[in-house]
Design brief:
96 residues, mainly alpha
């Protein structure tokens, strides 16, 4: 099976990607919970204090930006991880 990836290596990469996806979902859930909490607080205080609304809006935008950056980092890491695994498991065909 020269030039191919073993089933074991493929399974390892698949398992690692599944873990990364699970972490992404957990991060998304945490972000949604934080945003929902901020929305609730904002709804309670919007009428009383427009400065609090602006502060909340800025904090929410920052949370969303950080989440997006983290997801991009995880995607880059997962791509690099898959590529690295595939390159390490690649067996070139014999030269004639």
């Amino acid at each position: 099976m020269s030039g191919t990836v073993s089933h074991q290596d493929f399974q390892l990469v698949s398992d690692e990607l599944a873990l990364i996806e699970q972490e992404n979902r957990a991060l998304q859930t945490q972000l949604r919970a934080a945003i929902d909490q901020k929305v609730t607080l904002e709804n309670l205080s919007r009428d009383r204090d427009s400065d609090a609304f602006n502060q909340w809006k800025n904090e929410r935008q920052q949370l969303e930006l950080e989440y997006t950056e983290r997801i991009e980092e995880l995607q880059e890491v997962s791509i690099d991880l898959v590529f690295d695994r595939l390159m390490r498991s690649y067996i070139p065909p014999p030269e004639n």
